[in-house]
TrEMBL record:
It holds the Pfam family Med7. This is Mediator of RNA polymerase II transcription subunit 7. It comes from Didymella heteroderae. GO terms for molecular function: transcription coregulator activity. Residues 244-269 are annotated as: Disordered. The lineage of its organism: Eukaryota, Fungi, Dikarya, Ascomycota, Pezizomycotina.
Length: 283
């Protein structure tokens, strides 16, 4: 229908915020002049150190809108949450693994299923992020492989225990406790494996850089090979020209060479040149 509004086409990348238009040379100079005037006319104690500006909070609020955009806001505290792309995070970092474990525990105990009520994730190994400032600390350099082997053996034992309970009485409520232990062991193994992610990222970056170096070396070798081919073609051109000149000089002192023979020889030389060019250009 004519009254219906046309759908707005979605853009793959959103437009930048409109206030970027205020970041002009003129506005920056105006703000700098105001800050210089404030630094000479007011004591340093009134400056707003949280934003890094020489203006006080009252002076910042009194600025025009286009100049207030040029002053960065106060950075959030380490434990203060804020949103990035719709997700809540913190400056000190967000423990995504703990959030996932809490989500799993909530879903397992939610009605109407009540799969494993009252299950909570318990970390069974020392955290490597507690003493990262001291690389000699035992918690900063834990033996992850040893803990993974322990959890694997415990997991097998718990699994055998579960089979024994189910073989005797499939409805025995004790199986839920064994299932909780198994799930906790699996989650601990998953958490330990996730701590290898930085190492995996470094190794992946090293492999990519090595591949780039190898590719550049192959390109250099290809350029060197092409240089030799071009030199060979140029040497062939020079020899062909010298041979043509020598033939003309010989024709002057002896019996004249027929024009047809000279033309055929010239065509043969030109054909060799074009063949060499095709080889160099890769046609």
């Amino acid at each position: 229908m004519a009254d219906e509004e046309e759908p707005i086409p979605l853009q793959p990348f959103p437009d930048p915020p409109p206030f970027f238009k205020h970041f002009t040379t003129e506005n920056l100079k105006r703000l700098q002049d105001l800050e210089n005037a404030a630094s000479h006319g007011a004591p340093a104690a009134n400056n707003d150190a949280s934003t890094g500006s020489k203006l006080s909070s009252e002076q910042i609020l009194a600025l025009p809108t286009e100049l207030r955009y040029l002053i960065p806001p106060q950075p959030p505290a380490d434990e203060e949450p804020f949103h990035v792309f719709g997700e809540t995070t913190k400056s000190s970092g967000t423990n995504k693994f703990s959030q996932d474990m809490s989500y799993i525990a909530e879903k397992l105990g939610a009605p109407p299923d009540f799969v494993l009520p009252d299950w909570n994730y318990t970390q069974l190994y020392p955290s490597s992020s507690v003493s990262t400032s001291d690389p000699r600390s035992a918690t900063a350099n834990i033996d992850r492989q040893a803990y993974l082997n322990r959890f694997n053996r415990s997991l097998i034992i718990e699994y055998i225990k579960l089979l024994g309970i189910i073989a005797v009485s499939p409805t025995d409520p004790g199986k839920n406790e064994v299932l909780k232990h198994i799930l906790n062991l699996v989650c601990n193994m998953h958490g330990l494996i996730n701590e290898y992610r930085p190492h995996q990222a470094r190794e992946t970056l090293i492999r990519i850089m090595e591949e780039q170096v190898a590719r550049k070396k192959r390109e250099i070798e290809g350029v060197k090979g092409m240089r030799e081919k071009v030199r060979g073609v140029l040497d062939g051109f020079g020899k062909a020209v010298e041979a043509d000149v020598g033939t003309q000089e010989d024709g002057k002192g002896s019996e004249p060479v027929s024009k047809g023979a000279q033309g055929d020889k010239r065509k043969d030389v030109q054909k060799e040149m074009w063949d060499a060019l095709d080889e160099v250009l890769g046609h």
